[in-house]
């Protein structure tokens, strides 16, 4: 099988793959069975070799994305190998029909990896628009560079059945070049653009300090709870520290006392807990009301 073509010998590669003969349906099916059943390498080479022209043809359809044609063909060839491993000739369709999806998928994945995520987007709808916009512009003779006029954006939006704002936004992404964060800033000798980016998240030092403080308070609460009487601890935990707090009525039945008595025990337990955790200082309630 032909190796992946480099940019320098692309023309020679395209000439050589024409030497592989086209296969008839019966011969193709026999070769596919030989690979499926016996893993015959000669059968695989003949079957794939006869479809290398298909990969090159598909690759030319993606030439407008500005990526090396040799790389695009190499990715498509890998997709065709994947297709061969999953192809079942007994289902009644030709290898071309089955392989075409794998070839296109491999090339599109390569394009997505190579283009900036900022320029093409990450959602399924943005990826669909990314691949469909250039084709739609070509069909409507709107392949000029730069911004679209409002009328052109509207025509494309109606054609693709998407909002006008999405068309205009994606066209702007595709037309605008990526800007490196390592570019020097005007008027500064050593500064770069990335030096002025602000991270809105908390620093590692702040997060560590918060975790340590939270752990300290949890340990302090645990020690204070251990100094409460067993009934106080149970009522306080059931009323204030449970994800599904029990009602006064529930606890009155559980302990065989009145609801008012439960409320009094709870209030006393909270006062004790605050005193134990603060050394007697009066502070706002440490347990959520």
Automatic annotation (TrEMBL):
GO terms for molecular function: DNA binding; sigma factor activity. CDD domains: Sigma70_r4. Keywords: Coiled coil, Cytoplasm, DNA-binding, Sigma factor, Stress response, Transcription, Transcription regulation. SUPFAM superfamilies: Sigma2 domain of RNA polymerase sigma factors, Sigma3 and sigma4 domains of RNA polymerase sigma factors. InterPro entries: RNA_pol_sigma-70_dom, RNA_pol_sigma70, RNA_pol_sigma70_r1_2, RNA_pol_sigma70_r2, RNA_pol_sigma70_r4, RNA_pol_sigma_r2, RNA_pol_sigma_r3/r4-like, RNA_pol_sigma_RpoH_proteobac. It comes from the Bacteria. GO terms for biological process: DNA-templated transcription initiation. Residues 247-273 form the RNA polymerase sigma-70 domain. Pfam families: Sigma70_r1_2, Sigma70_r2, Sigma70_r4. The keyword Cell membrane does not apply. Residues 204-241 form a coiled coil. Belongs to the sigma-70 factor family. This is RNA polymerase sigma factor RpoH. It comes from Skermanella aerolata.
């Amino acid at each position: 099988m032909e190796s992946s073509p480099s940019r320098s010998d692309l023309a020679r590669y395209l000439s050589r793959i024409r030497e592989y003969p086209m296969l008839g349906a019966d011969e193709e099916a026999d070769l596919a069975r030989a690979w499926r059943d016996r893993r015959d390498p000669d059968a695989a080479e003949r079957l794939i070799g006869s479809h290398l022209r298909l990969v090159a043809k598909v690759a030319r359809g993606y030439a407008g994305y500005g990526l090396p044609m040799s790389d695009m063909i190499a990715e498509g060839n890998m997709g065709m190998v994947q297709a061969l491993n999953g192809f079942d000739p007994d289902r009644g369709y030709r290898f071309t029909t089955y392989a075409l999806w794998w070839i296109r998928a491999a090339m599109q994945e390569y394009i997505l990896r190579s283009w900036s995520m900022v320029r093409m987007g990450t959602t399924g709808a943005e990826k669909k628009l990314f691949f469909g916009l250039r084709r739609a512009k070509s069909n409507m003779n709107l392949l000029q560079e730069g911004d679209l006029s409002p009328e052109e954006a509207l025509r494309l939006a109606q054609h693709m059945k998407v909002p006008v704002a999405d068309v205009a936004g994606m066209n702007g992404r595709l037309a605008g070049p990526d800007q490196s964060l390592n570019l020097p800033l005007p008027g500064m000798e050593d500064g770069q653009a990335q030096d002025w980016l602000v991270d809105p998240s908390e620093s590692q030092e702040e997060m560590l300090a918060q975790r340590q403080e939270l752990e300290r308070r949890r340990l302090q609460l645990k020690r204070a709870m251990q100094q409460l009487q067993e009934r106080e601890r149970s009522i306080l935990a059931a009323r204030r520290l449970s994800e599904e707090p029990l009602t006064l009525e529930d606890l009155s039945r559980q302990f065989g006392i009145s609801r008012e008595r439960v409320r009094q025990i709870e209030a006393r337990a909270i006062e004790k807990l605050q005193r134990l955790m603060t050394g007697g200082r009066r502070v706002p309630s440490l347990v959520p009301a």
